[in-house]
Predict the 3D structure of the following.
Amino acid sequence: MRVSITTLLLAMLLSLCTQLESFAQSVNAFAFKLKEPIVLDGILDEEIWGEEGWNDNFTQYFPYDTSAAVAQSRVKIAFDDDNLYLAAVMENTGPREYVSTSLRRDYRGEQNDGISFVFDTFNDKTNAFQFGINPYGVQREALLANGGSRSEDLNLAWDNKWYARATIHENHWQVEAVIPLSTLRYKDGAQNWNVNFYRIDSHNGERSTWAPIPRNFSIISTAFSRTLIFEEPLRKNSANISVIPYIAGRTSQNFLEGTSESFTPAFGGDAKVGIGPALNLDLTFNPDFSQVEVDQQVTNLDRFEIFFPERRQFFLENGDLFASFGHPLARPFFSRRIGVDRDSATGQNVQNKIIYGARLSGKVTDDWRVGLMNMQTATDEDRGIAGKNFSVLAVQKKVFSRSNVGFIFVDRESLALDEYQSIFNPNEYNRMLGVEYNLASEDNRWTGKALYHRTFESTEKEAPRTLNAYVLYSDLHWRWSISYLDIGAGYNPEVGFVPRVDYKRFNPDLGYRFFPKSNFINSHGPQLEYELRWNETLGTTDRDIGLQYEVRFQSLAQFTLGYTNSYIYLFDDFDPTRTGGEPLLAGTDYTVNRYGFEFRSNPRQAFNFRLEGEAGEYFTGDIATLRSELAWRIGYTANIGMNFSYNRIRLPEPQNDADLLLVGPRIDLTFTKSLFWTTFIQYNNQIQNININTRLQWRFAPVSDFFLVYTDNYFPDTFASKQRSLVLKLNYWLNI
């Protein structure tokens, strides 16, 4: 009997160990040490890609998050002293066509087929590297910040060298990739990272992940990643130094001012230097951003400055460390202020040459992250512009599981135009000091922020500070937040973005989402928003009450209906059409009601669109608005788009009526994976301008490009040119 009991206990123990081992394998990934080199061809015939050790059992993220993926995938990881190796097999339910919106690197969008690999190399579940590839071998790489809570936290502007091949088979497609370890930042001797993989399958309209992510959070969320265990510790075996020189030439003509610039050569470059295991030093000398695409124009019916995102490559890598501070309405640092100044003769903003820049950023320890940047612009005596020096220090300390405490200091010093003064004008400085707490709970349900910032200038100002407290709760059904913002009258971060000061803002909102059992509707629900702004002098200056109902379909289409009641007090004269008409007088106030809708079609279709409309009262009159974005995809070689905005404004005399039209056709051709041609035309009758920007890009080597960019601006009525330019630029990425 004892033997039987002993045998039974041993059997139970063995079964338990087997289950525990199976469970451990299901929640951990393993990276195997490579003993023999592989041939990067997308054919998984090497011994390392054998049957054992695959990470499979992907679960759905969309349309549901409670079932296994219909189209299953599996991933395997290997490494050696120099590289990380990835293999992935994406199965299908049968032969099919794949969707790739383009052959251009850094594709984005839920309509694309693709597999993405996310590596959190410091195990903070806040920042990560992402690499992706689609069935046609188009690659993308990105940096993930702020826990991936929003789509904006995915920064595809980050570029680096890595290699991948994809092959398409009858019932699956597969990937083989090599990522140099020098591309990544990680702790020397590390033996585990956090990792996740996710796949977008256009045929089934399915998004799936290896580590399950609740569908009320973003698919790029890092809070739910699992552990990747290396067979032996990773070592830093080589220096990571890259030099990226460029040569460029430019010619331009300004017909408004009667000036021209003959073909002018220029040269400069960037360097990237790895310092220790986790810090990166970025250097730039005489940077040139002429290849950066122009901003997409908008019709401005607001009383304040409009925010446009940063597009210049140097400012984007690790940009979240500097740009994530503050509130969207009170940003202490906005990198687009660097390289732009005001012409003292015309009062217009003009480009101001950047002489050099340096940025040190990255991890100091597992818990400490630091960023230090210094930029110098040139003096332009003809325009009365003094050169300026910009310095930024940002420090973050991880606390609890995923939260952090941050500190930021921004300093702008102006050079003295008088040669007898010191190098910096002692009265022309602007400084900002701020501290923040960023909340992110382990399960990602609670996020929030608390901050206090203060500016310093040579003249004392009243209330030169801002403070904000914000908390957001989100689960499968409920989503609510509450925010309080107080911006003092004297708060003036001149290197930041603050369109308005001297007010307090209270902003709660509440939403609920239903998930019906339906083959047609994925989810639907209402959201109520309230926003109140006031100050001590005027009392209430703005109030918005908004109610909307959103329906998301299984096809990925969306439809929203909305209603808004608004109160507006004008503390300055304001022309509602911004066309030079008779302004409404300061001290007047208005209560208006508007109704609106928005529809986004299935993005997986070759032709898809977004249509948005709004109608109702507008100050003393009424307004009707129609906006659309049309997109037509022709295979993966051509994308033809059209942005359209029409505002019909009718106001009683003496104010102007207006019909404001903004049309922006765009043609994007990708001849091969290395040759691209983009043309963007914008007609805006609010500023009476037609802009043409056409850009040819040839990627002749990894992360190395030749650009040819032509830009022209015309008067719409006569088609007479205002100003035009032609730029040629060649840059080459060299690893040392």
Q: What stands out?
A: The first strand starts at residue 28 and ends at 33.
